[in-house]
Fold Coiled-coil domain containing 18.
Amino acid sequence: MESSSSDYYNKDNEEESLLANVASLRHELKITEWSLQSLGEELSRCFHLLPLWIRRLKAFERN
C-alpha cells in the first residue's frame, strides 16, 4: 500500500513539475514573441529610411 501511495505522490509531483515547465515555457514564448515583434518594427523603420540613407550617402560621395 505504501508503494502505491509513494507512486501516486511521485506522479503528482511529476505532473506539477511538468505544468510548471509548461507555464515557464509559455512565459518565455510571450517574451520571445514580444522581442521579435519589436525587432520587426525596428527593421521596418530602418528599411523605410534606407532610401534616404542611400541618397545621403550618394550626395556625400559626390562632394
Notes: The first helix runs from residue 2 to 62. DSSP finds one helix and no strands in the chain. The chain has one domain: 1-63.
